[in-house]
Target: TIGR03086 family metal-binding protein
Amino acid sequence: MTDHSALLRPAAAEFLRVAAAAQPLTAPTPCTGYDVRGLLNHLLYWGPWLAAAGRRETYTATGTEADAVLVGEDWLATLEKQTEDLVDAFAPAAAWEGLATLGSATMPAATVGDMVLGEFVIHGWDLARAAGTPLTCSEEATAAAEAVRASAVAMGEQARAMGVYGPEVPVPAGAPALDRALGASGRDPAWTV
Model:
């Protein structure tokens, strides 16, 4: 795996732009089982776990994601702060080296970093689709999409077995990197509300 820390900040900025537009909170998303509120709750629940893994710290949540109610009136400010914390946690090259613990699982730290990048890109696309707005693919975002595609392919079987990804959606080899990343993660790039 590779250090993709340089891709995090631009991906995070685009993620926050589309998250702010994702209304109403009851709108469906392409992320199976989640409306906008549920997806934001998912992101707010797992963000501290990911940041702790990047810093090699221990994090324990009270309750499960299903029990958590994290999307209040100030959800956007909370998401902005958490996103900045994730970028900061994975900014140092050392955050991508060696092993990291995420919950009870120990894995390559670069895998956890790529999960963060995937949260920004894939869930950013989910929120953009729910809002009916495009996810802008700058040069950095295209590189991020390619990194996420490679990660989704590498982790695909395990992620599908854990229910994190749906079945792979066939996408033409010449399609944009984002579409190929979406297909590898079990999303249909043509999904609309």
Remarks:
- The chain has six helices and two strands.
- The first strand starts at residue 99 and ends at 102.
- Residues 5-184 form a domain with the Four Helix Bundle (Hemerythrin (Met), subunit A) fold (CATH 1.20.120.450).
